[in-house]
Design a protein that fits this description.
It is a single chain. The chain is α/β, with parallel strands linked by helices and 488 residues long. It has two domains: 262 residues, Response regulator (Rossmann fold, 3-Layer(aba) Sandwich), CATH 3.40.50.2300; 147 residues, Response regulator (Rossmann fold), CATH 3.40.50. The protein is built from 15 helices and 16 strands. It is globular, with a radius of gyration of 21 Å.
Length: 488
């Protein structure tokens, strides 16, 4: 598929980014005790009515607002009318599909790279400084796939290589190329803020499926071999045609306050990612912004004196303060704003690291009372999907820190897509099953929202939850919920 001029310009911009620190973090989990094993639950396809709707007695829900409800009785993607899909004859149906502005077609020779009669070889790569424990989650999920015989034909799945890119874009690229050309892996699970287009374009051009947290442009169209476990998260910010802002980061607060009549103050990291976020928030919170300012990143010296930022909060008195910053900035501002006497919620996207508040008294105190919005289901919940996840971790003796949760859900999606390709697995049968026939993931109750491809190369399932630190422990402040997205 041809890359647009816009995408090439965005790739150049992304290549100049040092570290997109505002997209993720993971501190040392060694001090946290592993949770007790949970009973294994029986996996069943997600029922939208039961799994992600607000309960009738939920004080936060807008039951009369269609834009804020999870869509009930959502049909599988094959039965939906895709955006601007053109009629196709019987021959085209087998090898081509158009979704919105993008066409998906098998115009390559099938490859069985990494596939034998017995195994499917996979690789993993991450930015270990931010996503420590990534392979713990992968091994936990791959272990269950092998125990339960989830792959057709009796194959097992094997993790044959792991690369820590050390936050170096060139190491990220070389790691991916080595896994493909030397280790001959079928697919890769990768989450890194330095997985720039140099890497993801290489994987796309070599028909290597890769899964991960979809905040980087390689998980979005026109790339059709990158699959975010929560879709194309950055599509709107990166100018992907057909992408919309994620309404979940807004709707969860409308539900929290019980009204849309709120004023919001936002601090963004002063880097490329923060500037993209700033533009997103200007669009998303139009007319509701008390301020939308920048703060220095840790790599640029960090916040040495939070006074002026605290004064901005006290001057404007917003109902809510959102910290779209790096991890260090979120910690500093949370503690300083709380100490100032501001009584509204202060939230960020990074400080949900299971076990962290209790393992570090200083960090626990800084986080106390604050909120973290999360795009993975909190492990403090008691839903069947979380019970299954904890049982999978227990099998490999691992603890579900944030980085390992990203690995777990990345592996979960990879396994489901490989299974959908059937016993005759190769790159063409995989592409056919996921991008042309259409694929929708399934989860037990309380798991991730379903992703649909090819639609989610452009959009996202738009799911989120929220935790609060209370007495040095995370508590679920708002259940993990998915909001309806008519574009899918």
């Amino acid at each position: 598929m041809k890359k647009s001029l816009l995408y090439k310009l965005l790739a150049l911009l992304a290549a100049l980014t040092l570290v997109v620190a505002s997209c993720g973090n993971d501190d040392d989990d060694d001090g946290a005790a592993a949770p007790a094993p949970a009973p294994e639950a029986t996996e069943a396809p997600m029922d939208d009515d039961d799994d992600h709707d607000h309960e009738d007695d939920d004080d936060h829900a807008h039951e009369d607002d269609e834009d804020h409800e999870h869509e009930d009785d959502e049909e599988p993607m094959d039965d939906e009318e895709p955006m601007d899909e053109e009629p196709m004859d019987d021959e085209e149906m087998a090898t081509s599909r158009t979704w919105g502005a993008y066409t998906y077609e098998i115009d390559f020779e099938p490859s069985t790279r990494g596939v034998s009669d017995d195994t499917v070889r996979l690789g993993a790569m991450t930015q270990d400084a931010l996503y420590g424990g990534f392979t713990d989650g992968i091994n936990a999920r791959l272990g269950r796939a092998n125990r339960d015989g989830e792959l057709p034909g009796g194959r097992s799945v094997e993790l044959v290589q792991f690369v820590d890119d050390g936050s170096d874009p060139q190491a990220n690229f070389e790691g991916a190329r080595s896994m493909v050309e030397n280790d001959e892996v079928f697919g890769i699970m990768v989450t890194s803020a330095v997985s720039l287009p140099q890497t993801t374009d290489y994987l796309d051009e070599n028909q290597v499926p890769f899964t991960g947290w979809g905040f980087m442009p390689g998980f979005c169209a026109p790339n059709d071999w990158g699959f975010g476990f929560n879709g194309c998260l950055s599509g709107f910010a990166f100018g992907v045609e057909g992408a919309d802002p994620l309404v979940s980061v807004q709707n969860i607060w409308y539900d929290f306050f019980g009204t849309e009549d709120i004023q919001v103050g936002i601090f963004n990291s002063d880097d490329d990612a923060g500037r993209a976020g700033h533009a997103l928030y200007e669009n998303l919170w139009a007319g509701k912004l008390a301020f939308n300012d920048f703060v220095p990143t840790q790599t640029a010296g960090g916040i040495t004196d939070p006074t002026r930022f605290v004064n901005t909060v006290l001057e404007h008195e917003p109902d809510l303060v959102i910290l779209s910053t790096d991890f260090a900035g979120a910690i500093t501002l949370k503690a300083s704003i709380a100490a100032s006497g501001y009584e509204g919620p202060v939230a960020d996207y990074l400080t949900y690291v299971p076990g962290l508040p209790g393992s570090s008294p200083d960090l626990g105190q800084a986080l106390e009372g604050g909120y973290a919005v999360t795009q993975v289901p909190p492990v403090e919940a008691s839903e069947p999907a979380i019970q299954q996840l904890l049982a999978d971790y227990e099998e490999v003796g691992a603890f579900p820190g944030f980085g390992s949760l990203v690995g777990y859900w990345s592996a979960d999606l990879m396994i489901q897509m490989i299974a959908a390709a059937g016993e005759d697995l190769n790159t063409a049968s995989f592409y056919q099953a996921v991008n042309i026939d259409g694929f929708e993931s399934t989860q037990q109750q309380g798991g991730l929202g379903p992703v649909k491809f090819p639609a989610d190369h452009v959009v996202a399932p738009d799911c989120t939850g929220m935790v609060q630190v209370v007495d040095a422990e995370y508590e679920v402040a708002y259940e993990f919920v998915c909001y309806g997205d008519p574009g899918r």
